[in-house]
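quick one: magnesium ion bound model?
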Amino acid sequence: MDLERFQGCLVGLAVGDSLGMPAEGLSQEEVARLFGRIVDLKDGWLPAGYTTDDTAQALILAESLVGRGYLDADDVARRLLEWYSSCPPDIGTHTRRVLSLMEAGMSWQEATAEVERRYQPLTAGNGSLMRCAPVAMRYANDLAQLLEASHLSSQITHPHPLACYSCAFFNCVLSRVLRGYDKFSAFSFAMEVMAHAPYELLERVEGVPSKSREELSPTGFVLDTLECALWAWWNFNDWAEAIIALVNMGGDTDTNAAVAGALLGAQYGLGSIPEKWRFQVKEVPRCLELAERLLALARGDS
Ligand SMILES: [Mg+2]
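yep, here:
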């Protein structure tokens, strides 16, 4: 495990989020009409170089892991609530519902159960997948803890099985990539370890290597996001090319680019993310520091 991959992972998440921000929620045609082709950081509903709730929540999770040393769901929930109370510029619908119930006095367990009860099956969104990479970093050396913590990190807001298993699958791949495994080994390892995951998920991920760009749906449904991120990682050998391809597809661009950005950043390292973007994206210094501290914790396990 090396620092280059850990920092590439967290910085990749933030820079991907920032590249995707201006196109969030637009169709592919709208992206083309408004921006031509997005190939750089752009002003959108936030100024160029700003990041959205994906990075905010991933860094909250990273800070909690570093502060506590392990995944403490109550601590993460408390920090998410604190962030929610500071009125961030955006927050996914599902997570907002959960945090607003927590603000009204419910525990995270009560709040998520209530939101599931009211809105299922619309609750398998990508809101926990987008923030889960720091869990793979913290537990890169401990598979059992990695799987348990990936599920738990999702349950805080997204207990839907597809959301939990998507986080576990993604982190399983990511942890191998962080440890220097090639794509094929990382992917087959995750398929083997996650053989008990819901069939709907396995069917999707199994098809990733043979999918064409036109077959992807870049929506906020967690399996769509997982598929887009794995597809971009599988098909590109260049961080920027992969992320640019995803952003110009439209849809949930900030999240798709954040999830893929983390995986590709871990694969190709910090240096694969263009330097000008690393300078321009606001949260990069915080990502660099947290990645270093997560690596130290992960090394302590071996
Ligand atoms: Mg976002």
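The chain has a mean pLDDT of 96.
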